[in-house]
Amino acid sequence: MFLSWPLIAGGVALAAVVVLVFRVLRKPEGDEEMVRISRSIRAGAGAFLRREYITVGIILVFLALGMSFTSLGWRTAVSFVLGAVVSGAAGLVGMMIATRANARTTEAAKSGTKPALSVAVSGGAVMGLSVVGLSLLGLTGVLLLFAPELFVPGEVSNDLLVREAGIINGFAMGASLMALFARAGGGIFTKGADMAADLVGKVEANIPEDDPRNPAVIADNVGDNVGDVAGLGADLLESYVESIIASMALAAGLALSATDRSLMLLPLLIASAGVIASILGIGFTKFFGRKNPRLALSGGTYVSAVLVIAATFFIVRSVIPAEGFVGEGGRSFTQLGPFWASLAGILSGVLIALTSEYYTSSDFRPVKKLAEASQTNAAVTVTEGLAVGMVSIVLPIMILASTVIFSNHICGMFGVALAAVGMLSTSGMVITVDSYGPIADNAGGIAQMSNQDPKVRRITDHLDAVGNTTAAIGKGFAIGSAALAALGLLTAYIAAVGGIDDISLSDPKLLAGFLVGGMLPFFFSSTLFRAVVYSANRIIFEVRRQFRELPGLREGLEGVVPDSESCVDISTRAALWGMLVPGLMALIAPVLIGFLVGPLALAGLLIGSIVTGLMLGVFTANSGGAMDNAKKYIEEGHFGGKGSIAHKASIVGDTVGDPLKDTVGPSINILIKLMAVISLVIAPLLTS
Amino acid sequence: MFLSWPLIAGGVALAAVVVLVFRVLRKPEGDEEMVRISRSIRAGAGAFLRREYITVGIILVFLALGMSFTSLGWRTAVSFVLGAVVSGAAGLVGMMIATRANARTTEAAKSGTKPALSVAVSGGAVMGLSVVGLSLLGLTGVLLLFAPELFVPGEVSNDLLVREAGIINGFAMGASLMALFARAGGGIFTKGADMAADLVGKVEANIPEDDPRNPAVIADNVGDNVGDVAGLGADLLESYVESIIASMALAAGLALSATDRSLMLLPLLIASAGVIASILGIGFTKFFGRKNPRLALSGGTYVSAVLVIAATFFIVRSVIPAEGFVGEGGRSFTQLGPFWASLAGILSGVLIALTSEYYTSSDFRPVKKLAEASQTNAAVTVTEGLAVGMVSIVLPIMILASTVIFSNHICGMFGVALAAVGMLSTSGMVITVDSYGPIADNAGGIAQMSNQDPKVRRITDHLDAVGNTTAAIGKGFAIGSAALAALGLLTAYIAAVGGIDDISLSDPKLLAGFLVGGMLPFFFSSTLFRAVVYSANRIIFEVRRQFRELPGLREGLEGVVPDSESCVDISTRAALWGMLVPGLMALIAPVLIGFLVGPLALAGLLIGSIVTGLMLGVFTANSGGAMDNAKKYIEEGHFGGKGSIAHKASIVGDTVGDPLKDTVGPSINILIKLMAVISLVIAPLLTS
Known about the structure:
The structure is a homodimer of 688-residue chains. The first copy, chain A, is mostly helical and 688 residues long. Chain A has 19 helices and 2 strands. In chain A, strands 1-2 form a two-stranded antiparallel ribbon.
């Protein structure tokens, strides 16, 4: 009976996707120039996705074959492939619509803010609801396929449940692999193109942002889609799936009784409620978006949070026996324990998002002070920007540490995993808001490139500015939820591998694991930085070549169009090649350490990577966000405005911040989750 | 009998200090202008030290009184005060001579490279040998005072030894508190003044570096002394003392037999041998410094390393019974186990230093590529510079992780602590080389300010350039040894607090401890960054004021001298005020977590802070070093040389790198050690 809920919720989400797709496609796409630009962006995004999927596909086949030949078996391999396919499918649908919603948003802006917001939100919601809908259906499908015992009342050994949970972990690993390419590859793509477009356009050729003469501009706009729509979607999809799977795996070890699997199914039920709550939140946003788009977006987020809290309360009350249950280590927990744990997760998600907003929005002191500091020199901007990012870690960590202690106190390590499920239950809404950002950004770019009326551009610029704040908030949310999901996976790994509990903290293998694990996010980040710089330099050479060899391009002569495709092509190649080293590292490091040094060292490696990864993730995301918005704040006319010393300094800061916040920061989420899920998958091999 | 060795070695070191002091002071100080400048620097350094010591003194008294009233008792309090006094005394002597050796080095450069090198090395050796001499004498004195049982053959309970070891920990904590102020305070002082001098001098007023017209130049030169002489000395003194104490504390738990304390005294013997080896190494450097100062300095380092390795072999052979001994957990170790462990430490110190050299010297690829990347834009320089710093972590961590595993395998956790003792045994030599750097730097500044012959300036510039490389190497060594010392302290803490072994890695308090501990180095760094920016801005305003209000200053009119004292004063205040938040954080965090959340959470906090602190330390030190030397490489004429686009970009990179490498990086060493030693000191209170 419980089984029907995730299927229904997933079905509803996909039905909503179909409705939204038609509503978006029905809208007019605008004049010829807008259509042309939108098509170029779409073609570029499609070209990237195609090559990305081929690359992932090849790796997927090899890994799946490898798995089949170990004792993990073909079931885990199939589950693994399905996880990647689900994530890829969500990304494909989301991108197809996001790249069609951009020009339509510009066109709708001619009739006002509300219609434009509505189109952009619909476009974002396609991504958001595809992610949650496809994840729920895919996950339930895999469960039905490989763990049917879960759904049939009757006596089943916990051992069987644990083994079946092991097969399902493959699904999470597939989603994780896809997310690695989508997020890190997309991040390299988007920032290589962005840096190049800025440096060669604004600085060298002295033409404004999003100018149609700049051959790198289309690649920059493609990048927004592949990085922030497909990348973020795949990232949250992974956390979403992993938080559910980790809590199910932990629950498998502590089933209420031999015949009752409510604890194991609880995460699926909360997630199902979250899907419905997200759909209602999206409706709220579209309905109340007339005056203040920002309030409408955050209003929708709060509405879905409140709804899912209420729903979770009733679900827990009806699923968990009134006398409570016995959890890990024989500790007894109250009936409402799981509710409080998910509530803690939901609240800490909101709080972490608020701290991100505080440190990265120009409404508050840190960004204002950063803009002020830019009056001295670019070096001061960067130094102060790094300082803002570093101090912005304090509150999120305090919130996460409290959540871990509280949810464990109230419900054991299962509670920590449930907190992650709670936090991620409204992913449908969160991804909608986040994907809205790049659509609005693209809409602004199209308005600029196609020379729309200033009134239209004011509206798209306003929607874009709102998107910048939501992007920073979304990043805080993504890293917070990734950390909780990774902690859940870590605990599941420790439980699965067995025999590494009751250890000494001064065990040298553990200490060495901490050190090596702590180092990996830095190494990973450095390779991503370099890939971005490499990609940017290649594009800069190409743009310079075009300005040199295409007469009339720089002057904007009628009929002379830049060759945008070549820049998209360079970005794509650089992104996929740039993935090679960090991707291999993420795949190989846990396997190597696990088999050569042992499961305890691997546990240390995971902890070390979660600790430094979480810090680096929040630091880079907020540092970059603050430097970005300090530049925008100065451009609004503060401290001398455009063209002032402060503005020049802030441009350097923004350019440094770009790969920090859009390549390195978000990719680290994936790194720590991917290594944790690989460890969980290979756990059975490590113990045998 | 063993007791006499550290006393003899300490006495020899101090005798060598006296000889070197007279040899330095005997040299002529040069013309009137040189004397005036050197006096200004000396006066500024003295003013800073005075206020720093008063501040530390007040905190010291309060903390010592606090300790006396707890069950830690007055003995620990006295030991604590003595530790701080020894560190302060070493800093005072070292600074007094370093600030007298600078002009004398310039004067000696008139007769050639070798005499100049000899004066600078003698000046540095005063600091180096004061540190090791005073530490050994102070530590042995405290042992005699509070742990006389150690030295008298006869039956003593291990409990008593452990309790006495607890009292001695106070000595390390005193040294650590002093080091915090010397290193972090000195770091804020030096980089605030440096950034201001660069920004207002080179960028705004367009006058060259070290120009006597710039009022901030004296403060910049003072900063080199307080940051790199006194700061580095106090940092290594702390690691030196802590590695000895941690290994003695670990050995106390595993005395060979009730009457044999050889294991406990072994660290003191190795350290004593290291002092003699360092003196011989210094002699080698002074003797062979004719042609190539860099080879002479590294030659001396290798000579002392080889000597101490040989000595350790014989010491271990004569002290440890041929049949080996039984260590922690009843594991038996061979006679030579302790030798191999110290050898691993010495070798890993050398290897880590070599990786620092590779990533920060312009002789190798990373800095060359960084200089090349500067041709695009300052943002690219900074991004690539951060990437170099991040990737430079990989090898040191691998080396440290292998050292931990190997030395533990060969000799238990005692072996890990012994590796730290081995690495630090040649501290006398290492500090000499490091303190040589700022003396040579000052000598160059004085040559520039007093308009010496270009031939003289070429010599001082060359000596300065050598000092820049040794500084980067010294930082790598300092952070590597700090990490090993902190791991030793951590193990001693876990042993001392008891009852937190056999724990679960997924314990929520432990996980929360990891997270909070991992966050602290970032928070600490951000406050230091801000203190530097604040200090720099204040000095910039002051310099602008002087250029405005002192007619003829900017033009270099005869008889118009800038008011350098005011800049020194601003730097001093900013440094000591800037210490408030990070200092309090370092002191309070472990106490708070230990008492409120418990000893297990505190262990997690220490591990988290060591992991992220180590990464951040290496990253910031090498990032800053690489950006510094990329600028110098461009200034040598590559990629357009001085005044080119690449040069301007590299100046921004260098300015961002300055606080990274000279304020944040080195201070993090102290943070992780201070928190570990505080935890060790309060361990008895946590268990009662």
